[in-house]
Amino acid sequence: MKIYGDIKSGNCYKIKLLTSFLDTPHEWVALDIMKGETRTQEFLQKTSSGKIPLLELEDGRCLSESNAILNYLAHGSDFLPQDPFTLAKVQQWQFFEQYSHEPYIAVARYINVYLGMPEYRKNEYENLQEGGNKALSIMEQRLQQTPFLAGGKISTADISLYGYTHVADEGGFDLNKYSAIQAWVKRVQATPGYTGMN
């Protein structure tokens, strides 16, 4: 299988992280969104959205959206619970990541890291701080109660949220205010097979 992505992107990195945990054989195809490499005709034939990450199976079928890819790759492993309620909890956190976390933390990081904080986006960057800290506070409350987001062991919920949370400081968010998140980051990093964002 092939995975198309940009390792600096949290959404792409979380796929790389899961494949490392699972030791999943794959070919990583690096694409640079800033150079328009996801807008080529060849790539758009694989996914009309032109978004990465993209998973291409050996039979040519393609799957987009990072959390869908995570759950597909984790199917049958310990990273995706079998119990219906626990599975729904994983999905609950993944929806939270896409709607309440990523739009603030990932976008603030994008403005700073990818764009270099252009003057015309400074107000937007500052306005993202409140929403991002609210998301981190919700995670902090949960992680004060359980070691991982969906309960007692790591799952794709944690991988989904780890992608951008562990580099949230690059978007202006001070993780020193969140001791439970910091402890959780260390637990994720201590999981066998862990690989960093590089």
Describe this structure in words.
The protein has helices spanning 10-22, 41-44, 66-74, 84-114, 122-143, 156-165, 179-189; strands spanning 2-5, 27-30, 54-56, 62-64. The chain is of the alpha+beta class. The chain folds into two domains: 2-74, Glutaredoxin (3-Layer(aba) Sandwich); 84-189, Glutathione S-transferase Yfyf (Class Pi), Chain A, domain 2, CATH 1.20.1050. The protein has a four-stranded mixed beta sheet with strand order 2-1-3-4, with helices on one face. Helix 1 (10-22) crosses helix 6 (156-165), helix 4 packs parallel to helix 6 (156-165) and helix 5 crosses helix 7. The model has no long low-confidence stretch (mean pLDDT 96).
Topology at a glance:
Blueprint: E1 2-5, H1 10-22, E2 27-30, H2 41-44, E3 54-56, E4 62-64, H3 66-74, H4 84-114, H5 122-143, H6 156-165, H7 179-189
Parallel strand pairs: 1-2
Antiparallel strand pairs: 1-3, 3-4
The main sheet orders its strands as 2-1-3-4
**What is the helix tally?**
7
Measure the end-to-end span: 21 Å
Low-confidence stretches: none
Order of helices and strands: EHEHEEHHHHH
Number of strands: 4
Radius of gyration: 17 Å
**What structural class do you assign from the helix and strand content?**
alpha+beta
In the CATH hierarchy, what is the class of the largest domain? Answer: Mainly Alpha
Largest β sheet strand count, sense and barrel closure: 4 strands, mixed
Shape: globular
| Amount of beta strand | 5-15%
Summed over residues and divided by their number, the pLDDT gives a mean of 96
Determine the fraction of residues in helical runs and give it as a percent range. 40-55%
CATH architecture level-2 label of the largest domain: Up-down Bundle
What CATH calls the topology of the largest domain is: Glutathione S-transferase Yfyf (Class Pi), Chain A, domain 2
Number of domains: 2
